[in-house]
Give the backbone structure.
Amino acid sequence: MTQSTASALLVNEVGLHARPSVKLTQMAKRFVSRLEVALAADGPWVDAKSPVKIMRVKAPRGATLHFRASGPDATEAVRALVSLVESRFDEEKP
Amino acid sequence: MDVKLTGRAASPGMFAGPAARLSGIATIARQQGNAAEEAAALLAAVAASRAELSHLASSANGEASRIMGIQVALLDDDALSESARAAIADGVAADRAWREAMAVEIAGYEHADDEYFRARAADLADMRDRVLRHLLGVEVETAVAAGSVVVARDLPPSLFMSLDWSQGGAIVLGEGSATSHAAMLARSRGVPMVVGIGPGIETLDGTLVVDGEQGSVVVAPGAATLAEAARRRTLAARAEGEARARAGEPAITRDGTRIGVMINVALPSDIEDVDPASCDGIGLVRTEFLVANGALRDEERQFELYRDLVRWASGRPVTIRTLDAGGDKPIPGYTIAGETNPFLGMRGVRLSLRHPEVFRVQLRALARAAALGPLKVMLPMVTTPAELAEARGMLRDAVDTLRVEDTPAILPSLGIMVEVPAAAIAVDQFDAAFYSIGSNDLVQYVTASSRDGGETAALGELTHPAVLRLIAAVAAHGAATAREVSLCGDAGGDPRHIPALLEAGVRIVSVAPAVLARTKAAVRALDLGMHPAKKAHVGL
């Protein structure tokens, strides 16, 4: 069982609202590991595969997202989520 | 006749037509069964809603499809109905359990600090009502004739999509937000929309004329108002076609004044679909993307990014703004955490001068890229001439050091953003090579109105005489001293504001690539010959 943690700065225009939340959960669901996200390094942690729970966090632009994962593909999962956040969810226009 | 109600503009355009009122879902209650039957009913209603939305998503495209896709993803998530299912197990009827669970969810968004999150409450209310209709067996409201003005308290995005817009139409809302998904859909579909009319929404009836630019509605319009609406609508349709067809041509006013139209770049990928020949260069590169790329302290990587922009522009000017962090753009370990008023705190060049080791990396990369083409450097948030002098000294030092190292480098022309009122008022004190007016921040600071929108949005208008006078003064100083003056805020790409900006003496605007064509069209429609006194040529 691998465990992995990392954090990324939310630099997209509008923070973690509907569309970015759904993109994040879609990415998270590609991995078998348990994946969680939080606004602080010590939690509270929410399931990164639930768009409803992620949207409830209402993470604004400029927030730091912390990720943690445990499972066989934990390292890859965390890396994929961090790069999705850093790439502004691959969709942003100026 | 001609009673006018004013709200906020949410989607441009003008339309006249009969009012079609949408009422909210009836407050009928469901015949309650036992807990197992109620649980099954909710499950079936959610599944049926999901199937409808999924169908709507696949039959739409682009923005509309993505918005419906979000609702599908949320309905797929068991977490959404978790508390409703618990209440049903405790003996509550399915419709009441769902209403109460969604009320809690929606309240969480309505009270969010951020306007984007507040606007999501409408999406959740839309999902709530769709599931309720299935639970209660009520038909979805689509009985609105094509070509109507839809009048409602608020408009859910899925309802927008189920209405027929083939004959035009418009939307007037008592509440609502310009950042809602419905407003985004209206803009992409070209449907005029006005939000925030207030309680007066209840009085709207008969023929309405909706003005999506002014954010107003005329009730019981006279013949003259109707004729004017029809004329403007025809003109708008023709103008849109012409703008697209002539996007590649230069922007010249009717009296022959050439207006420079450049583009703003926030990400290196922004220029992928833009033909460099269709613009007069890049008027603003926001280098905050360096942070996302991890290149803040990486000179080589920065040099490559700047070099690629200069190569793309093939001889046209590329104006690169040094890092503008702070305000609403924090960077951990670089910006100051916990400032009580970050927009009046350490941001832009203030932070660059405080972190010379980071600033030096950027200045070196910029001086190296300047050896390859006409690259210009622009400082954000300049407040005093001393800041400009200090930055200029550092830029010169960077070039000297590079030359000692035998690395090709050229001293780029160094200008300032004019966005702090102090710089705008005393612009003659700033010996910069050029001035670029940052209208978003200038408006926010001059009118003391947060640019995040919300309650103060109506106060923070570019058209405030104080703002226009400052812009005119900066343009006049530039013309008198042969310094280029451009404007790189959102106002430059807003056709409503282009006449005022050009009359104020602005001759170069820099806009988002998406609005390049319509900006040029707005310029071509103007005749500055009517204002010969103001025909100051700033040069290009």
Q: What stands out?
A: Confidence is low (pLDDT under 50) at residues 531-540 of chain B. The first strand of chain B starts at residue 3 and ends at 6.
